[in-house]
Design brief:
The chain is an alpha/beta fold and 239 residues long. Helix content is 30%, strand content 17%. The protein has 7 helices and 10 strands. The strands form 2 sheets. A 7-stranded parallel β-sheet has the order 1-10-9-6-2-3-5, sandwiched between helices. Helix 1 packs across helix 2. The longest helix has 18 residues. The chain is globular. Bound molecules: 2-amino-2-deoxy-6-O-phosphono-alpha-D-glucopyranose. The site of 2-amino-2-deoxy-6-O-phosphono-alpha-D-glucopyranose has 14 residues, from helix 5.
Length: 239
């Protein structure tokens, strides 16, 4: 993995440049996208570049990492809503090529259909990741098998507490999520993980310098041939 330590603003610009380069060379690229507060700077930069005519998503396809089970796409805390609001409503990615796991239909057929759709689209060219404080990627919590495909996970109390800041109360935070599996993520041709802030310092140390273990799901990225980890100085503080 390549480690880049830079300011939050420069990380957004440098990661956005990877999207410009990818889409210039391959306009119909398949993008794996993420939610959370971390990618917001990158998404704002992609919207700005689109408005400036420097990037187009018109031939691209997207697959998001995860979705809360039980939340409809219209719920303001659903990840589909987040993506529409922060990126898709502002760029030219056609709606029919936007994919977010369903939070309402989590049948085995639908879950395996998500991996099948990624494969049918040609596989993910560039997968974007944030990281949970416990090292989760997507919603693959510690202990998730490294060979997992898209599946439903039970969220840890820790994750629900961290994410409860976006809900009225902890009780409202869904207990389960549908997420791409670790194998699904690792199948991407290239990966960007962004970590911002001191709350990520411990999991970044384990991700970059610790052993590869299912207990720190992001540590598996050490085995990926084309993975860039962008950290701000606070997230890199323990390296
Ligand atoms: C959620 C998402 C992850 C994300 C994580 C970190 O748990 N499922 O994909 O990486 O939050 O969120 P944040 O970027 O807000 O720190």
């Amino acid at each position: 993995m390549e480690l880049i330590i830079d300011s939050k603003e420069n990380i957004a610009a440098r990661a956005a440049k990877q999207y410009i380069d990818l889409l210039k060379g391959k306009p119909n690229a398949v993008l794996g996208l993420a939610t959370g507060s971390t990618p917001l700077g990158l998404y704002a930069e992609l919207v700005r570049l689109y408005q400036a005519g420097e990037i187009s998503f018109k031939d691209a396809t997207s697959f998001n990492l995860d979705e809360y089970v039980g939340l409809p796409p219209t719920h303001d805390q659903s990840y589909k809503y987040f993506m529409m609001h922060n990126l898709f409503n502002h760029v030219d990615l056609p709606e029919e090529r936007i994919h977010v796991p369903s939070g309402l239909d989590t049948s085995a057929e639908t879950l395996s259909g998500y991996d099948a759709a990624i494969k049918a689209a040609g596989g993910v060219d560039l997968q974007l990741l944030g990281i949970g404080n416990n090292g989760h990627i997507g919603f693959n919590e510690p202990g998730t098998p490294l060979e997992s495909l898209t599946h439903v996970v039970e969220l840890t109390l820790d994750t629900r507490e961290v994410n409860s800041r976006f809900f009225q109360s902890l009780d409202e935070v869904p207990t389960h999520a549908a997420t791409m599996g670790i194998r699904t993520v690792m199948n991407a041709r290239s990966i960007i993980l962004i970590a911002l802030g001191s709350a990520k310092a411990d999991c970044i140390k384990k991700t970059v310098q610790g052993p590869v273990t299912a207990e720190v799901p992001a540590s598996v990225l050490q085995l990926h041939p084309n993975c860039t980890i962008y950290c701000d100085p606070e997230a890199a503080a323990l390296l």
